């Protein structure tokens, strides 16, 4: 491996190629996925709400930054690239597959994109969830960048409040890719779901 790893509580900080980033441990649990009662603006494809049980996993404390992407991929794909600590943008799902594969090779660890269920459970605050409308608050301006407070610009990570697990920017700023193919929900219960086996578009 070519990295340094430091663990403190539920956070692991990894330094590779001179850039540090952190992962947050999400303890497994059971939750209702989809357009639950507090989600007043849920889309029709967020129904039916269904129970999902997840095992433990780790997820990024922040979005992947331009600095980290550049160090791992030797490229700067972002359309808006003015600061190293802005999240990378203008990358495809396939670009992200190359990124996690290269990161895995560099560190000796196994990185993947999160499943849609893993992403949603983490965004909701995992087992510490307070059932907020957004990831960490009922007030979007406290936790998320959107048109009215960002001036339509990509913002540097960790400027707003984290959610219950200590994860930042899961509401607003840039879209985040998941590993799953897009598909309609079913009402049955799931354990560690990975989404449909095939499809025409990926979840973000």
Molecular structure report:
This protein has 204 residues and is an alpha+beta fold. The protein has five helices and seven strands; from the N terminus they run ββββββαααααβ. Strand 1 (4-8) and strand 2 (11-16) form a beta hairpin. The radius of gyration is 17 Å and the shape is globular. The model has no long low-confidence stretch (mean pLDDT 96).
Give a brief rundown of this model.
The protein has 204 residues and is of the alpha+beta class. The chain is built from 5 helices and 7 strands.
List segments where confidence is low: pLDDT < 50 over at least 5 consecutive residues. Answer: none
Q: Helical content, roughly?
A: 10-25%
Q: What class would the helix/strand composition place it in? A: alpha+beta
Measured on Cα atoms, how large is the radius of gyration? Answer: 17 Å
Number of strands: 7
Strand content: 15-25%
Mean pLDDT: 96
Put simply, the count of helices is 5
Compile the SSE list and pairings.
Elements: E1 4-8, E2 11-16, E3 19-26, E4 29-33, E5 50-54, E6 57-60, H1 66-73, H2 93-107, H3 116-123, H4 140-143, H5 147-150, E7 190-191
Parallel strand pairs: 5-7
Antiparallel strand pairs: 1-2, 2-3, 3-6, 4-5
């Amino acid at each position: 491996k070519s990295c340094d790893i430091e663990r403190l509580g539920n956070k692991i900080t990894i330094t590779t190629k001179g850039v540090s980033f952190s992962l947050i441990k999400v303890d497994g649990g059971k939750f209702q996925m989809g357009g639950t009662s507090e989600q007043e603006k849920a889309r029709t494809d967020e129904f039916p709400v269904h129970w999902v049980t997840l095992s433990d996993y780790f997820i990024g404390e922040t979005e992947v930054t331009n600095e980290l992407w550049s160090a791992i991929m030797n490229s700067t794909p972002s359309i808006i690239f003015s600061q190293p600590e802005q999240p990378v943008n203008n990358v495809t799902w396939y670009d992200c597959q190359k990124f996690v594969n290269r990161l895995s090779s560099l560190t000796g660890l196994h990185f993947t994109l999160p499943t849609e269920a893993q992403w949603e459970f983490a965004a909701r605050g995992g087992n510490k969830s307070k059932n907020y409308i957004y990831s960490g608050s009922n007030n979007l301006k406290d936790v998320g960048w959107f048109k009215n407070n960002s001036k339509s610009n990509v913002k540097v990570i960790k400027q707003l409040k984290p959610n219950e697990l200590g994860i930042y920017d899961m509401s607003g700023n840039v879209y985040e890719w998941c590993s799953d193919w897009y598909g309609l929900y079913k009402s049955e219960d799931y354990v560690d779901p990975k989404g449909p086996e095939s499809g025409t578009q990926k979840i973000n």
